[in-house]
């Protein structure tokens, strides 16, 4: 009997010794390798559960994780207390070097084997973090909350943004890759975020002499142009980061024409800039690279430089002094040996490209037909990002609305950020675009003059929302151009007659709102409109009733181009003029064309309004041809005695003529005579 117990004991000892040895081998791997393991047995183990406790401890309350931490390493009680104290801190939260995405992958794998609700909660908090960190233009910074310096740039470096988009892709497509499934509402948000991210990638692809090429490791978060990071990471085209970007684009089902063009152009570029006949040779001591050099080798596989000149694709290198070098040999030991200056990653793109191209015709055509559908009611259409409405896109709803209808077509838009350019064509009259709430129903885009680059009239191609159809109404919406302070960038363009915009927020910088059309009349009621230079401009006859006009910089509120035969131009009634901290010297208006007409009645003016009030835009003729007037205004910005001599302070009898009926009414049309009143 003793002998039997002895044998059993030895067997158990051997079993646990082997098991312990295998788990120790796991924990000796890098954190990235552990998160990527396909080993259900280990993720069901006690050791995995211990690691999961570390993952939960390292996560900040905001949902993100810091980077470059071997989370699997055992923690002392003191370290655990320190991590608990850091929970409310947001410092160091990032997606760089795989952070956050790797921890989410680990949580998904252990939740599948050990369904602890804490793992699910932490995974979903990580997803919320990724969604919150995204810029309106679709890019992601390196750190969120934003960290000053180059960290605010859109970061493709080390595949940071591609990693995020791959997470969102699996979730939006409901592939089951992640064992934790978010709500339908969150899935809809991931789809929107993913689409915006792809749009950002397409827009940031660098044009070299008008020809699409590849991407930089970092792009400016406003202009989308290649940007500098660390001293030795200069603006350039990247052979490494561009490869993973293209592989992501090639993974899209039914790719758009823009995506196909981007891939085609990048492949041409990869083939053009590949380096043949050169091999990297390393000297390694004690597991560390102590010397690295490039040597000729006719049989070497193709390589690509990590950094290439924007103008001519010539490879370059640099040390911590930021000075470009022609060869790697010129770089000091520390950076030469401690950084990846060459890559072979584009080989995967070239390997898969031909098959991808051959499959395109099969993949694209059927879905294009299937996407066209008819709403249940042609005159009451619902747009919702979660798929509960007739359409998920506002533009799709408009495109499928009846042309020249006999009655109003009401398009109800549920809360969400709709990252799209919206056009209401001339034939889609009588549309009412009604948001669920003005703060949470957002139409957003980021075109601007330099990005459009179609010549001197590029401004007019930039609107987020363009209204060309008569009898249009919009309410309870935010319409914004998120391009930032980069020049002309229209949020809302209204080139139509009998248009009512009520209870809306219109956001932008220069040229936020364009209201125009000779003889056209428009009515803005209870709106908030902000901008910098000439942020309300155009030639229509427009009444702004009870609106807030918010200046963001020292500039001009209006730039009217009223036609000579128009009796009225821009008329502001009962409005409030406010300003941000940077705006201390703002004019009420200047004449875009010399017959400009702008009048303020019963408006409250902040102290940011210049005492002279008006500017002639260096057009002496405008002082005689234009009409700038005020009546019964108030606030520190209303200084009638100090106004320019060629402006007008209206008399009571003159002011009585400025009624809605007189300005907007149409005596020649019984059906449209009071279109603005309902």
TrEMBL record:
InterPro entries: Pectate_lyase (IPR012669), Pectin_lyas_fold (IPR012334), Pectin_lyase_fold/virulence (IPR011050), Pectinesterase_Asp_AS (IPR033131), Pectinesterase_cat (IPR000070). It catalyses: [(1->4)-alpha-D-galacturonosyl methyl ester](n) + n H2O = [(1->4)-alpha-D-galacturonosyl](n) + n methanol + n H(+). The active site is at residue 534. Gene3D superfamilies: 1.50.10.20, Single-stranded right-handed beta-helix, Pectin lyase-like. Its EC number is 3.1.1.11. Pfam families: Pec_lyase (PF09492), Pectinesterase (PF01095). One of its GO terms (cellular component) is cell outer membrane. Residues 380-664 form the Pectinesterase catalytic domain. One of its GO terms (molecular function) is pectinesterase activity. One of its GO terms (biological process) is cell wall modification. Keywords: Aspartyl esterase, Hydrolase, Lyase. Pathway: Glycan metabolism; pectin degradation; 2-dehydro-3-deoxy-D-gluconate from pectin: step 1/5. Belongs to the pectinesterase family. This is Pectinesterase. It comes from Flavobacterium seoulense.
């Amino acid at each position: 009997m003793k002998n039997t117990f002895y044998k059993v004991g030895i067997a158990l000892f051997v079993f646990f010794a082997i098991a312990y040895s295998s788990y120790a081998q796991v924990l000796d791997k890098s954190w990235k390798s552990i998160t990527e393991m396909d080993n259900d047995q280990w993720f069901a183990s006690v050791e995995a559960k211990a690691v999961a406790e570390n993952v939960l401890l390292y996560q900040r309350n905001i949902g993100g994780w810091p980077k470059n931490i071997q989370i699997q390493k055992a923690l002392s009680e003191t370290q655990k207390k320190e991590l608990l104290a850091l929970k409310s801190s947001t410092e160091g939260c990032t997606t760089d070097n795989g952070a956050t995405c790797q921890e989410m992958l680990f949580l998904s794998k252990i939740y599948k084997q050990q369904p602890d609700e804490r793992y699910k909660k932490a995974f979903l908090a990580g997803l919320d973090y990724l969604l919150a960190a995204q810029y309106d233009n679709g890019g992601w910074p390196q750190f969120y909350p934003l960290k000053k310096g180059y960290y605010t740039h859109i970061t493709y470096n080390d595949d940071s943004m591609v990693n995020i988009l791959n997470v969102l892709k699996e979730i939006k497509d409901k592939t089951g890759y992640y064992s934790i499934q978010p709500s339908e509402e969150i899935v809809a948000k991931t789809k929107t975020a993913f689409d915006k991210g792809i749009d950002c990638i397409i827009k940031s692809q660098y044009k070299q002499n008008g020809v699409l090429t590849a991407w930089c490791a970092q792009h400016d978060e406003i202009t989308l142009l290649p940007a500098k990071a660390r001293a030795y990471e200069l603006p350039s085209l990247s052979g490494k980061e561009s490869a993973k970007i293209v592989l992501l684009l090639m993974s899209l089902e039914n790719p758009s024409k823009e995506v196909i063009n981007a891939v085609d152009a990048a492949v041409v570029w990869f083939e053009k800039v590949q380096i043949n006949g050169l091999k990297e040779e390393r000297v390694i001591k004690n597991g560390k690279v102590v010397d690295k050099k490039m040597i000729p080798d006719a049989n070497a596989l193709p390589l690509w430089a990590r950094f290439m000149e924007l103008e001519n694709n010539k490879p370059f290198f640099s040390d911590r002094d930021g000075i470009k070098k022609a060869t790697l040999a010129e770089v000091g030991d520390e950076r030469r040996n401690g950084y990846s200056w060459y890559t072979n990653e584009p080989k995967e793109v070239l390997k898969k490209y031909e098959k991808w191209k051959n499959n395109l015709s099969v993949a694209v055509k059927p879905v294009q037909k299937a996407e066209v559908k008819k709403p249940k009611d042609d005159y009451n259409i619902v747009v919702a990002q979660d798929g509960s409405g007739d359409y998920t896109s506002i533009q799709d709803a408009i495109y499928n609305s009846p042309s020249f209808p006999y009655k109003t077509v009401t398009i109800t838009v549920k809360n969400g950020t709709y990252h799209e350019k919206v056009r209401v064509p001339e034939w889609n009259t009588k549309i009412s675009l009604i948001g669920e709430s003005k703060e949470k129903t957002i139409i957003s885009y980021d075109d601007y003059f330099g990005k459009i680059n179609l010549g001197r009239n590029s401004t007019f191609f930039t609107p987020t929302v363009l209204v060309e159809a008569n009898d249009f109404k919009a309410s309870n919406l935010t319409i914004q151009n998120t391009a930032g302070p980069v020049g002309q960038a229209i949020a809302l363009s209204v080139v139509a007659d009998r248009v009512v915009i009520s209870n809306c927020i219109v956001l932008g910088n220069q040229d936020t709102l364009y209201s125009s059309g000779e003889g056209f009349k428009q009515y803005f009621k209870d709106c908030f409109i902000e901008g910098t230079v000439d942020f309300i401009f155009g030639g229509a006859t427009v009444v702004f009733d009870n609106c807030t006009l918010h200046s963001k910089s020292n500039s001009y509120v209006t730039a009217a181009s009223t036609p000579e035969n128009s009796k009225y131009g821009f008329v502001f009634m009962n409005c409030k003029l406010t300003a941000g901290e940077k705006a201390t010297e703002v004019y009420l208006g200047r004449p875009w064309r010399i017959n400009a007409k702008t009048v303020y009645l019963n408006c409250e003016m902040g102290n940011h309004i210049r005492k002279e009030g008006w500017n002639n835009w260096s057009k002496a003729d405008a002082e005689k041809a234009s009409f700038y007037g005020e009546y019964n205004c108030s606030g520190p910005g209303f200084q009638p005695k100090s106004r320019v001599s060629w402006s007008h302070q209206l008399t009571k009898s003159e002011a009585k003529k400025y009624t809605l009926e007189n300005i907007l009414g149409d005596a020649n049309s019984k059906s449209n005579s009071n279109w603005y009143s309902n």
